[in-house]
## 1
Amino acid sequence: MNTVLSIVLFILFLFIVSNKKIPNSMLFMVMAPLMVLTGMMEASSVWELFSNTGIWLVMIIGVFAHLMDISGFDEVIGNTFYKMTQPIKGKYRDLGIYAIIFIITALCSTLMSNVSVALAMVPAIYGISKKTGISRSKMVLFIIYAATLGGASTLIGTDTNIFANSALEEAGIQPFAMFDFAWVGVPTAILSGIYMVICNRWCKSYDDVVEDSPDKKDFSEEEKRVRARQRKGVSIAFLVFVLGLVLNSFSIVKVIFPYFNAYIIGFLMLSGLWMLKFFDWKTLEKGFKVDYLFTTVGLLAVAKMISNSSIGDLITNVLGNTLSGNTNPYFIQTVFFVMTVIVTQFMNNMTACGVIAPIAIALAHSMGADPRAFVMAIAIGAGCGYLTPFASGTNQRMSVFSECTLVDYMRFGWPLIVINYACSILILPRVFPFF
């Protein structure tokens, strides 16, 4: 019954996020009461989601983006990207901008949390959109995918890789080294980047170009001085916040400072901007978007509902029946990859990895095979959250800045899964032989 209710509620969820007539901010207001009334989640568990630090990171980024818009700092960012692509003429300019966005985001994500990198790029997106006229939603999707691909290239680039590594350690198997994931991650990122840039028209452009507000025209000399001061203040505050995001990516910092969190730094910086009179409170308040809050909490609630259901047992049974009696390691790797990709579209990717990795390790032991190729294939599959806006933490937090629908994710994301599979099936058995 638990599984059936989860599936029914999930179908309703898909209808809401796919229907552009229903605001995504209604997601929480519709789903949360139904989850509690059907017993799928406790009311206390639903309210606890509001304390999730990722939600407040989204809110802080939204405020910074608003302040940069008010002060004109996003224009500086947009002009910088525009100048970087100035030698590229005509229709190829957009390709150059997409390529730069992809490279910067992917490289940063190899050593930092991909969620943090993606969020830190939001103000840049607003500035680029304002300067070039490129759809903001389209660039958000580019950043989501670039951050995911970059993070998959190193052990610490994504929590999924760390979780897969932990599964090996718990089983007493030699874990992966820092750059073992790069064997597949780097070729995958390069090929995927080429596809995304060249085939960017497959990704729908929305009429959501960021424009200057009417009240930002024809400033007096005094207003120009005020805005220049505001730009300095918000740029320093945002850089300190980004530094906090960087430090938050390293576990050693959390060991030394157990209570350290990047969102605390963000709130301190915003408070400082108010106390030093860079911005008044009404300006700061306008940056806190309620729709961002309810959309993100709604996505988190559905992900938690699926993770808490008995779907994990169903997955185990399906895998057992599919692999029963088959000893072809390439077929087994393919099944694990495909199943993980399917599961991770609807379930937290770490949960997907946690459900399937132990099955792969046990099966490999029964065959006398090295399970590392299987486990890495599962980690890669768990990172392939390209088909839905709720498949990963990065998708959930960034989707509030985009108008892209479920269909947009599926249409532009499926070739990335094909590229991931091709690279994993061709490379992994050579780097980590089955026998």
## 2
Amino acid sequence: MEIRLLKKGYKSNEQFYQDFLDDKINSNEDYFSNEFVTIADAPDFPIYMGRGSEEEKKQAFQRAFEIIAASYIHSDRDLHLEEIFWHSLLVTKKREFILENYPIVSTGIKDFERVVIKPFDWENYIYKCVLAAEYIEDLDINVEEKKHYYNLVLENLDVYNYIIKYAIFRNSEFLIKILTIIDELQISNIMKSNIKDRPDLGKDERYGRRVIFELNKKYPVVMSPLLDIETLKNEVIQALSYYYDVSDISMSTQLTGAFVE
């Protein structure tokens, strides 16, 4: 599939939005650069998970993980981590899919920006899925083990989202170690729970977010991404202890996983 890339200036453009609704983007040369990219296949996948029940969101993420892993991340990394590529693909090839599955984009330009041309950063749902697929597919493990780690991401989406907020934590080894620690210590429910009686932290602060925040705050004194899994486990427990009574969390669990030494 050949995709013509947009040129800068399309964001927050009322006419661009209206032309998307009226199916006039592809016929307007003014929107495009002279650059093209070619990818073998570009199947539809969920692009926005900011709606529905928690189970519906998890199912959408799972579907996106599967399709992106199979069809998109085998391209050059500079391509599948490029904002203009994704925005160009969405507005030129996925218009009908978007209008059918995300009709809210028809209600106004703000919803269009939020769903379709959101900045390609840690808050972007496609970005979240691309990173997870890239990290897990790069692991030298079998299919069942990969499925296990995808499930761990799905069970710990809030923590995963917060991990990728910080550039220093964006690597597969750190992600897998953190997910393994959460799984083996059986603290997933704790990590995703809201912190109560701490108005100083905000209205929707969660234990997992504070753990990642504390690990980031210690960097570079403590190089969390480079720690072996046992040392990192101790750092996680210590960070959690600032907000939660960790006395009932067992430290005797035998950790297993792709990066356990």
